[in-house]
Write a structure and sequence with these properties.
InterPro entries: Cu_amine_oxidase-like_N, Glyco_hyd_98_carb-bd. Keywords: Signal. It comes from Paenibacillus allorhizosphaerae. This is Glycosyl hydrolase family 98 putative carbohydrate-binding module domain-containing protein. Pfam families: Cu_amine_oxidN1, NPCBM. This protein has about 240 residues and is an all-beta fold. The protein has two domains: about 80 residues, no CATH class; about 140 residues, Jelly Rolls (Sandwich). Helices cover about 5% and strands about 50% of the residues. The strands form seven sheets. Strands 10, 12, 15, 19, 22 and 24 form a six-stranded antiparallel β-sheet that branches. A five-stranded antiparallel β-sheet has the order 1-3-6-7-2. The longest helix is centred in the N-terminal third of the chain and has 7 residues. The radius of gyration is 24 Å and the shape is elongated.
């Protein structure tokens, strides 16, 4: 027999969506649900929640998030201060680099692309810094963007790579992370069509951060080629 639960406070329950769309309420909302004796198989193995049960609401199946996460070998944590659910590695609090107001740019650099329009190796990304670089009479094959960090951060992470707009060019891309005039990280030989590379840089005490985008040409490359190089999902950790 189904156990009918009334006055269930949806806003206080952490669940994981299995199928269908998410039902969301900005404020706590009372709903009426029916718990069901659901069976779970994770990678072919039978699994049973140690606490809590799944239920179906308006055609969508919900199950305890902690049960699913830990069954897949992922730690699940709840941060009450920020009302954030962490599944797997917990990064800590961070500030998106592109949410800061940049100090200056030199060359063709953009931070205001529409979310999901920056693409590397067929994957679209929410935000980032996109630069166009080329070698010509009016350009030295370089572009850059500066931020005033004022020593407030310790770590910078990002994904870097050649934008799909340049996936067929022969020239290679270079990205340099510079702190207070000193090279902190150089990522070279970026090739169109390759997956992005993870970057993790110590920026402890850095007052001024500069991201430099360059083109790496040799005699076999077409000097008229234009490269689009991306610095994606950049995060600053305190």
């Amino acid at each position: 027999m189904k156990e009918k639960i009334k006055g269930f406070i949806y806003g206080c329950v952490v669940t994981s969506l299995i199928t269908g769309s998410v039902a969301y309420a900005a404020n706590p909302t009372s709903i009426e649900v029916y718990f069901k004796d659901l069976k779970y198989k994770i990678d072919g193995l039978d699994k049973t929640p140690s606490e809590g049960q799944g239920f179906i609401y308006e055609g969508t199946t919900y199950v305890p998030l902690r049960f699913i996460g830990e069954s897949l070998g992922k730690n699940v944590e709840w941060d009450g201060d920020t009302e954030t659910i962490w599944v797997g590695k917990r990064e800590g609090r961070f500030t998106g680099l592109t949410s800061l107001k940049y100090a200056r740019t030199d060359g063709e650099v953009w931070t205001d692309e529409k979310p999901g329009t920056i693409e590397i190796a067929g994957t679209k990304y929410k935000n980032g810094i996109r630069a166009m670089v080329k070698n010509s009479s009016s350009s030295d094959g370089k572009a850059s963007i500066d931020y005033n960090l004022n020593g407030n951060y310790k770590r910078l992470t990002a994904l870097v790579g050649m934008d799909d707009a340049s996936r067929n060019v022969k020239a290679l891309g270079i990205i340099k992370v510079i702190g207070d005039g000193k090279e902190l990280k150089v990522i070279s030989k970026l090739i169109g069509g390759d997956n992005p590379i993870n970057v993790d840089v110590d920026v402890t005490g850095v007052l001024k951060l500069q991201i430099v985008f360059e083109v790496d040409y040799d005699k076999n490359y077409n000097w008229a080629e234009i490269l689009w190089v991306d610095f994606l999902e950049p995060k600053l950790f305190e």
